[in-house]
Amino acid sequence: MEPTAELLPQHFQINPALPIYEQFVEAIRGRIVSGAIPLGMRLPSVRELAAARGVNPTTAARTYQELERTGLIVTYRGQGTFVTGDEAILAEARKAIAVKAVRDFTSAAASLGLTAEQMLNMYKEDSV
Amino acid sequence: MEPTAELLPQHFQINPALPIYEQFVEAIRGRIVSGAIPLGMRLPSVRELAAARGVNPTTAARTYQELERTGLIVTYRGQGTFVTGDEAILAEARKAIAVKAVRDFTSAAASLGLTAEQMLNMYKEDSV
Amino acid sequence: MEPTAELLPQHFQINPALPIYEQFVEAIRGRIVSGAIPLGMRLPSVRELAAARGVNPTTAARTYQELERTGLIVTYRGQGTFVTGDEAILAEARKAIAVKAVRDFTSAAASLGLTAEQMLNMYKEDSV
Amino acid sequence: MEPTAELLPQHFQINPALPIYEQFVEAIRGRIVSGAIPLGMRLPSVRELAAARGVNPTTAARTYQELERTGLIVTYRGQGTFVTGDEAILAEARKAIAVKAVRDFTSAAASLGLTAEQMLNMYKEDSV
DNA sequence: GTGGTCTAGACCACT
DNA sequence: GTGGTCTAGACCACC
Questions:
Q1: What is the pLDDT along chain B (128 residues), one digit of tens a residue?
Q2: What SS3 state is found at D83?
Q3: How far is the alpha carbon of D18 from chain A, nearest alpha carbon, in Å?
Q4: I need a surface site. Which of A62, C67, D101, D121 has the fewest CB within 10 A?
Q5: How many CB contacts within 8 angstroms connect chain A with chain B?
Q6: B104 touches strand F (CB under 7 A)
Q7: Pick from A86, A78, A81, A79: which is nearest to A24 by CA?
Q8: C65 CB within 8 Å of a chain B CB
Q9: How many Cβ atoms from other residues are within 10 Å of residue D33's Cβ?
C-alpha cells in the first residue's frame, strides 16, 4: 500500500469549543494549499486519522467529506482518499482564502475608520 | 425620556446560519468603535431592540450582556443602558479588534506562503 | 407553534437498498419544486420527521442538511427549518432538474440510435 | 486467436465517485445496443480489460458477470467471452433501456408539473 | 422547543 | 483493505 501524507502537524491541538471536523478541515486545507501535502498524495484512511487523533471514525469521515465537497480531495471507492491532482482547483481554493481574508481584514479596518494598510502598519508588531 | 441611538443600520440583515446575538454584538461594537454611536449615548431597551428587529427578547438581552462584559456598554438600574463614557475602554476595544484582525490576516497569508503585505497587495482590487 | 407542511406523501415507501436520506431528499425536493409545499412553509422538526418515518434523528438531520446545501430550505437557529422564500432558488432547482432529465434522456436515446422525440413517441404507451 | 472488440471508447473517463463496474456495464451495453460492437464479436478477456483500463481484475470480472446476467454477453469456457448472437436478447435490452428512460423522464417532468413533451420542448436546446 | 455535534458500534458495497 | 450509511444515545448552543 502506498504511503500516506502526514496530514496534520504533530503538535496539532484540538479546541474542544469548536467542531472538531471544522478544525480538521481548515488545518488540512491549509496544508494542501501551502504545498505541505503534494497534489495526488494519498491521505491516511478514515480509520487511521481517527485513531491517530483520538476521535470517532465518523468525525474523521465527515472531515474528508467536507474537503471532498470543495474538490480539494477525491475519494476512490475501495482504494482510499487522495489530494486532487487538479491544479485549477488548488488555485481556486487559494484565491478563495485570499479574497475572504482581505475582505474580512478590510472591513475590520473600516469599522475603526482605517484603511487596511494603516491598520496593518500600526499593529503589525503586536500580532506575534 | 432621553432619545436613544439608532443601534443598527436599517438595512441590517440577519444571517440565520449564525448566532443572532453574535451578529448583533459585532455590528453594535463596530458602530461604537467607529464613532457612529457617540460615547455616553443611551441605547434602546432590550424590549425595544427585540421588537424592532423581530427577535426573541432573550436574544436582545444576551447581546447587551456580551457588550457589557467587555465594558463597552453599561446598565444603570432603572435608567437604562448607555454606551460607556470611558475613552480608555473604547481604545482597548479598538486595539483588540485590530490585533485580532491582523493576527487572523497574517496567519491566512502564511497558509498561502505569503506575507500579509504580499497578500494585501495582490488582492486589494478584489475586496470591494 | 406554527403548523408544519406534510413533508412526504403518506404512502411513501422507503427502499432499503438505497440511502434513506437520498430518498427523502429527492422526494422532498420534488414536493417543493412542484409547489406541493409552499415557499416559506415550516417543515416538521428533525425529531418529528424521524419519528413519523421510523428513522434515526441523525438520518432526518442529514436529509435537511443536504437540502440546505442547495438552498431549497433554510434553518433558523433554535426555531426550525423552513422552505426558502427565494423564488430564484426554486427556479434554479427546477431548471437543474429539467436540464439533467433532458440530458439523461437524450443520451439514452442516442445509445439506441434514436432522437429523444423518436424514443418518447415509440415507448410512451409502455411507460405507465 | 480471433481479434477482440474495442470495448470502450479510448477516451472513456472513470468517475471515481460511482462504482466502476456499473460505469463499465452501462458503457459496454450502450456500445452493444447501438451496434458499435457487432453481435457475436469476441470480447477481451477479463485480464485484458483490467490491464487496459488500470482497474482491479475483480472489477472487470464483475462487469462481465453483470452483462452475462442479462444475456447480452456469453462466456464459452476455454474460448472466451462473446457478444450474444441472439437478436431477441438485443431487442429486449433495447426495449428495457427505452422503457426505463421514458419512465424516469416522465416522472421528472411530473415533479415539475409538466408533461414529458412539454419538458422536452422547453429544454431541448440546453441538452448539448 | 430547535438543530448541530460527537461517540460507539454495526453493516454494507466496492476494490 | 477502503469509505458510506444507519442506529442509539448523549451533550450542547441557541431561541
A1: 667 777 888 889 999 999 999 999 999 999 999 999 999 999 999 999 999 999 999 999 999 999 999 999 999 988 999 999 999 999 999 999 999 999 999 999 999 999 999 999 987 665 44
A2: strand
A3: 8
A4: D121
A5: 89
A6: no
A7: A81
A8: no
A9: 21
Scanning every residue of chain A, which has its alpha carbon at the shortest distance from the alpha carbon of D14?
A76
Rounded average pLDDT over C106-114: 93
DSSP secondary structure letters along A6-44: --S-TT----TTS-HHHHHHHHHHHHHHTTSS-TTPBPP
Question: Does the C-beta of C8 come within 7 A of strand E?
Answer: no
E14 C1' – A76 CA distance, angstroms?
10
Q: Is A23 on the interface with D (CB under 8 A)?
A: no
Question: What does the alpha-carbon distance between residue C110 and residue C107 come to, in Å, rounded to a whole number?
Answer: 5
With CB atoms and an 8 Å threshold, state whether A127 touches B113: no
Instruction: Provide the sign of the torsion angle of the four alpha carbons D67, D72, D78, D79, taken in this order.
Output: negative
- Nucleic chain F contacts, protein chain A, residues 12-51, CB cut-off 7 A: 43, 45-48
- Chain A from 67 to 86: CB within 8 A of any D CB: 74-77
Give the containing element (helix H, strand E) for B68: helix B57-69
CA–CA distance, A18 with A26 (Å, rounded to integer): 12
Spatial separation of the C-alpha atoms in residues A102 and A105, rounded to whole Å: 5
Rounded CA separation A110/B35 (Å): 12
Measure the CA–CA gap between C2 and C44, rounded to whole angstroms: 10
Q: Which residues contact D115 (CB under 8 A, 6 or more apart)?
A: D106, D109
C1' of E2 to CA of A63 (Å): 25
Distance CA C43, CA C62 (A): 14
pLDDT band at D74 (very low <50, low <70, confident <90, very high): very high
pLDDT digit string (tens) for A53-102?
Answer: 999 999 999 999 999 999 999 999 999 999 999 999 999 999 999 999 99
Q: Three-state DSSP class for C52?
A: helix
Residue nearest to nucleotide E7 (CA to C1'): A56
| C-alpha cell at position C69 | 446545501
* C1 in B contact zone (CB under 8 Å): no
> What is this structure's pTM?
0.91
Which residue type, as a one-letter code, is found at position C91? Answer: A
Question: Cα(A114)–Cα(B51) distance, rounded to whole angstroms?
Answer: 33
How many Cβ atoms sit within 10 Å of the Cβ of residue A87?
9
Residue C61 CB closer than 7 angstroms to strand E?
yes
